[in-house]
Amino acid sequence: MVWEIPVNIVLPIYFLAAVIGVALIVKLSKNKTRKISNLRFYIQIFAVIAIFMGLIVGPFEQPLWAPLGVSPRDRLLGADLLGNQMPDGITFPVLACYYPNGRTVTCPVWQLQAYIFPFWNYPRGYEVTYSTLGIEKIGIVVGSLVVAALVFGRGYCGWLCPFGLFQDVLTRIRKATKLQHRSFSESTSKKLSQSRYIIIAIFLILSVIFGSYYIFGTELIPGTIAGGPGGTEAGIVSSINEPYCLICPMRPFCSLVQAGIGSMNFEYISQIVYGPFGIIGGYYSSISLTVLIIVIILTIAYRRFWCRVCPVGALTGLFSTFTPFKQIALTKLDKDEHKCTKCGVCKRVCPTQATAVYTKKGGDVMESKCILCARCVELCPHDDALKIKFAGKTVVSSRNWLEEENKKEKTD
User: Fold this and answer.
1) Mean pLDDT across the stretch 115-142?
2) What pTM, to 2 d.p., does this model score?
3) For the chain, domain boundaries
């Protein structure tokens, strides 16, 4: 039996452990060129435990989800603030799947699709009741995304995303086996970056087509009227209501991880896959599993591959690195053109092959491909040539560690 520990007890202990761990890493890291990376890895692990695995979010063992297992489902962020206006809670730009995690960690891409179809103006959701129109729900989702992106940009991808941590673990495995990573050509890297917005456009267009009856009064696809002929309470078969979720690798990944740690019943989630080559499944399918395997292989070969095509990352990048959002974003990557020698270290070490940090002369060099991992700042060999700033204040800046080590050796 799993017991839910009261949040007022867990939060202080959890926060204290996180602070102590961060302090020890900052103080004791001997390799100065890995200090930020080690700190980021530590924070990623803590974030996954808290957000993704549901250590402090619960509640567990809900009767409604008894066949599914004890996976956390319904502790909502923002529901109390907005009452019945947003029973799914406030979206947060961290890629955790709705299907195994429920509304505890709600993916904004899932919400954007679901609020177009099937819940545009339909009051019944997945075990919730809506009192707002679809356009109002979408407005809340986009508004919360904009606010989050303006605060931290794609830093969520680099520091909090569970799938980002998984990719970093794959990178560490590759390094341990002494395999050399590969890089895309600049043109291919650019096309991959552009493909994120094509993916967003496709799933939004499909969602509008599915929801045409409620949006325009015309049913373009049979079976898309909730409760109507050929439909279900939620419209067409619920597994394809959100088209992007059919191919998203996070859906099977979340399900399998939660089954692996015992918070989901694997026998239950595996029995509803529609055949060995089923197109659709409640928690994973042949399509999503195939995409996950391909992404794993490509991530071993190309660092942070999924971050280059992820639509959640694209949305946070859109609302933080493009005009007019770029001008008012709080988090910035700043470059001093007078201290930069064009050595190219920043360009070589970037896991997503972001190039603006190298090609731009100076000033804010943030771009939508940058996940704010700070690896370029960590390895830049020139003092204060690169800085990460928040609200105009320097958080971390590049240091000439080699020169500092030489000075230390001479004084010793």
Assistant:
1) 82
2) 0.86
3) 69-308, 330-411
